[in-house]
Amino acid sequence: MSSFFEVHHKLIGEDSQANISSSHIAIVGIGGLGCSVAMGLVRLGVKNLTLMDHDEIEASNIPRQILFDHSDVGFSKVTVAKQKLSQIFNDLNIATIKGSISAKNGTNHLNGADIVIDCTDNHIARYAISRCCETLDIPMIYGGVEGFNGQVGVFSLHGSKPFHVLFPKVEALVSNEQCNASGVLPFVVQSVGNLQVIEAYKIIRDEDNILNNRLLCINVLTGKQRIINLDIKK
After folding, report:
1. H helices within 162-219, ranges in order?
2. Would 32 be classed as within a structural domain?
3. Distance between CA 213 and CA 215 in Å, rounded?
4. Span 97-152, pLDDT tens digits
5. Among 179, 200, 213, 228, whose CB has the most other CB atoms within 10 angstroms?
């Protein structure tokens, strides 16, 4: 009988696969990005997850939030996500937190994670995640989507600056977010979510090309991309 991760082993070896499997990753926000990230991590072989979201599933979520279908409408996102992920691979350790993150509760909820992946859609939550990751010394993988554009970056890794320090004007970000809300298509969030999974893989494997205090900006429709180097000095 073949191993579940037999094809992975051919590329990265069993020891690397074991490191991936033993990692603990927290995902905050189980929407479009969070569903794609969670599915990608489980299929990669990550067995220990913390899922956090306060919301229930709505019909309008289903096109982008690929873990869910119409039978899930009205149920808790984290509860359904855990059930669906366990159908992919049943040897999982998934903790679920139904609630919103804050700077006060986040350190308790995120403590023990090796990586935190920000899949939220608002800067208030993002700043709370960033402050908690700074306090706990845990790397944060940021992902953002607007229209056909996406951004991915890594913060608070090996002493690098946290998101909230590099982007200190939260009021301007929140104002822009509220005034320029745009629609988004499934392939955009899936593309950005996959990039966040790639960064998690690189952190676990201690690769030397992590987007540490760098921002990858892409337009998935045109294929254009650029990397912005941010201030990495303490």
Report:
1. 163-166, 170-179, 186-204
2. yes
3. 7
4. 999 999 889 999 999 999 999 999 888 999 999 999 999 999 999 999 999 999 99
5. 200
| DSSP-assigned beta bridge partners for residue 228 | 215
- Name the domain count of the chain: 1
Site of tokens 């051919």: 10
Which residue segment(s) compose the domain that 146 sits in? 6-229
Residue 35 and residue 81 in contact, taking contact as beta carbons nearer than 8 Å: yes
Supply the pTM of this predicted model. Answer: 0.93
> Are 142 and 200 within 8 A, CB to CB?
no
Q: Which residue has the tokens 């254009």?
A: 224
Strands of the chain, DSSP E: 24-28, 48-53, 93-98, 115-118, 140-146, 149-155, 214-219, 225-229
Integer Rg of the chain from CA: 17
- In one-letter notation, the amino acid at residue 149 is N
Under 8 Å between Cβ of 166 and 144? no
Supply the CATH number for residue 95's domain: 3.40.50.720
